[in-house]
Amino acid sequence: SVCAPLPVLGRDVLVPLVTGGEVDYAALDYAASAPTLQRVWDDVAAYAPYYGSVHRGAGYLSQLSTDLFENSRRTIAEFLGCGTEDQVVFTRSTTDSLNLLAAVLPQDTRVFVFETEHHASLLPWEQRADVAVTYLNAPRTPQQAVDTLEKALAEREPYGPALVCVTGASNVTGELWPVRELAAAAHAHGARIVLDAAQLAPHHPVDITELDVDWVAFSGHKLYAPFGAGVLAGRADWLQAAAPYLAGGGASRKVSRRTDGGVDVEWHTTAARHEAGSPNVIGAYAIASACRALTEAGFDGLVAREQELITRVREGLAEVPEVNVLSLFGDDAARVGVLSFVVEGWNSSHFAAALSAEYGIGVRDGLFCAHPLVRTLLGSEPQEPGECGAPEAAPGERSLNAIRVSLGVGTPDEHVDRFLRAVK
Ligand code: PMP
């Protein structure tokens, strides 16, 4: 019944499409994919009849789509506080954005990354055989994160091109990382920094200039827009100097046969260089629509509301002695509306399944594509749950995986109340 058609809830700017309605399902898994805003859906529906392929000709639909695509790029650049020289490249997702950045790193770049990162920001770098990756141990305070990075950077000097990759908000604990301080440390040692803003951008303003990061990566589907699109925004030089991420039409400006029989290619130096093929114009337009909606609504109100809700979740869970909330930075850590926990004596997957089946509550269970982090947080070797085949943790034993609750725009009080009632 969860898959029954859900009625649209009204036309306010920030009404998520699938919250509430006929099927009273409490979607508390925003960190995996946030519900689409009604406003985004409306914008896409208004444009859909005029959909055409971008950059492909003088036809009206193609021209209109090209305009919307390029305007979307400008809207997103503004949303992120990009400078005039920065580029906004459309990708499929955060994962794709970070793999793109890995692909364009200058030769022999040294990368620094905390072991606590999501696999999307942990793993792309070693795909490059010439890139040396320094994995940094999990810090237990934000200050320790800065000190650890500072020390690692200093110890390995001198080096050529260097990159630090860090998440803005953890997809497991929801905890905020000291991005500005990490960026300052990186720059002080001549390194650049990319911010994985997959979990930060939906909950906080992300200003590339103010945070002083070199690139930002995020996904549309976590920012209240669906359609398989993401963004890598930031400094143009490495992007322009590298070979195109994908070779093909759209990325090439001029292709000609050489007299020796080969082919010469002049590649674009704009974002189009890394966007070969027919781009996902609806995805780009949906992200821009979400950016406009969030800007109009104002982050101050969104952050305040979300903090109120996540504080209630935390306080409610604190009343249940069997519940342990997972935290890297301690009880006082600032976090977005994301929180993970384990319940003594319960396999987390069974617990999450019970929340869904018995209470209509959707949460995430597992290791959240951040195995080293979850291992640190659980203090044990985690096991990917074979769904119902995973062993129960006996009372007093540590859980093997965790449960994550996450919320955001449109989460009603009732969903939090129901969740806490169900856990209790
Ligand atoms: N980074 C973080 C912090 C994430 O939470 C996620 C998604 N769980 C990703 C990267 C990857 O995003 P996507 O799956 O959209 O590529």
UniProtKB/TrEMBL annotation:
Entry cofactors: pyridoxal 5'-phosphate
Bilayer-crossing regions: none
GO molecular function: transaminase activity
UniProt keywords, alphabetically: Aminotransferase, Pyridoxal phosphate, Transferase
Domain Aminotransferase class V: 28-419
Ranges in a coiled coil: none
UniProt cross-references to InterPro entries, sorted A to Z: Aminotrans_V_dom (IPR000192), PyrdxlP-dep_Trfase (IPR015424), PyrdxlP-dep_Trfase_major (IPR015421), PyrdxlP-dep_Trfase_small (IPR015422)
Pfam families linked to this entry: Aminotran_5 (PF00266)
Domain of life: Bacteria
UniProt-listed PANTHER family: CYSTEINE DESULFURASE (PTHR43586), CYSTEINE DESULFURASE 1, CHLOROPLASTIC (PTHR43586:SF8)
Protein name: Aminotransferase
